[in-house]
Amino acid sequence: MVENKIYVHFQGKIKGFVSKKLTEIGTWNKMNGQLHPDIMRFWQSFMRRFPRISVFFIGLSFLFSVWACIPFAKKFDLVIQNGFIIDGTGNPWFKADIGIREGRIVRIGFIDDKQGKKIINAQDLIVSPGFIDVHTHCDRGIVRIPTVDNYVYQGATSVIGGNCGGHPFPLKELFKKIEDQGIALNFGCLVGHNTIRREVMEMKMKAPSAEEMESMKSLIYQEMEVGALGFSTGLSYLPGAYSEKDELVELASVVTSFGGVYATHLRDQGLYITEAIEEAIEIGETNNIPVLISHIKLADDVVWYELERITEPVEKARKRGVEVTLDQYPYTATSSGFGSSFPSWAFEGGNENFLKRLENEENYAKIKSYVIKRRLTSTKGINKPETIYIANSRKFPEYIGKNLQKILLSQGKEPTIENTADLIIEIQKNGGASGVFFQMNEKDVEGLMRLPYTMHGSDGGIQEKGRGVPHPRNYGTFPRVISHYVRKQGVISLEEAIRKMTSFPAQTFGLKGRGMLQEGFFADITIFDKNQFEDKATFSAPHQYSQGLHYVIVNGELVLEKGEHTGKLPGMILYRMD
Ligand SMILES: [Zn+2]
After folding, report:
1. What angle do CA 577, 324, 442 make, to 5 degrees?
2. Residue 11 Cα, ligand 1 centroid: separation in angstroms?
3. Which of 31, 243, 246, 278 has its CA 20 to 30 A from that of 112?
4. 515 and 561 inside one domain
């Protein structure tokens, strides 16, 4: 027994000594960059005694080191050389190369082209962070078209959906589908108020009961926990229009602890826009969350040229420390369903009730006069029927691409305001349609773009090429800012435009590691020719990709190469990170 104990004791001692010695040698080797003297001595005496075996070992170790070095011979997966770098901060361009490894930017500076497995020569081209579109409705078609062509061809590398109060519920399922099948660019999503309210209260035009309020809050909580970036409202759509401010203040409170944003399609974008902005600010300020006012515009000619209706409340709030920002698309026409031309009470209880109400003469007259006031009245003498186009309609495909005046004339009717209102009601009665409405002024678009707290966003969605006549913003938002507003009109500088498409959106939505060209950041990069980059989509022929875009890189992989979509799907879900 005693002998056994002694044996175990010495065995432990020897083991401890050997492992201590090995650790010591290992550390020494690492720190000095050469072999420990004890190892060197052992190796020299081994070589003297067994010269042939030594030669064999030396040969073997040489072969091993060659084999081991092969994968590391090139330092970068991709190198972009010779480009003009605009890093997204708003700083002026500089010249440098960019080295990318494992999806990240690992070096900005001079890089020898022998160090890249693949080289892009960006001579004379702009190398910018990939564009981030903060205002899209891509959540609606992204599973069907994961290549997201109409955004890739604009230079976008990230899109945010769930805007204007609508998102696919529950988000968990959407995120899973996207992750299972892959997606070309990065996608984040907001929780939509209209979606949540419809889930809990259907189309009721009333304030929520305490119980309904709790249910809505718990659903918002559930979606935020899955990774939504914030809460959105669409207060001129249904059922959002049925909600009062108090409801929104309380619902938005769920977002505070998650660090989310409040993005809002205002209750009014015309005569009452200031009041609508003040409501949005109060919702954010009470809950201590940032407020992003969606697709900012003066959408009624009665308020054209009165930018102070927007800038005054926003700047007052910013002065007292409320984070209020705006997003904007670079066009003078809006686009939405014709439903937004009707009074919200007309749809109370759902579409069946709407159809019944139209049968009542008195109700019909009330609805009609609202449509005339909302859509067909101008204080500047504009012929409204001529400015409203049908973008898409299932029931009336022959209307697509035509304005209401033309449609009436083709039916042998006079294009009067009365007849136009009847036509709008007829369209809505038959399942509705999406329209394009020219209701903004170029001067106002430019004025809003100049504000440092306005960023760019398309308000578009996934498009199937050739289907319908959608708003060209779906294909042209980012290239149009650069070609029309930077190059032709000189409204803002190229560096400022890129800041509004990259670092500013990333900051607003808390997208960590994106929106700038910096070492350690995700390699989301767009490369274009600053003299050629241009939108080709027009109102009459919108299904056209931009020109002058050379490469789009998402998480280090080429999604667009030499102007062509590669079909690759390296995008990620942009989960809220806090
Ligand atoms: Zn909207």
Report:
1. 120
2. 76
3. 31
4. yes
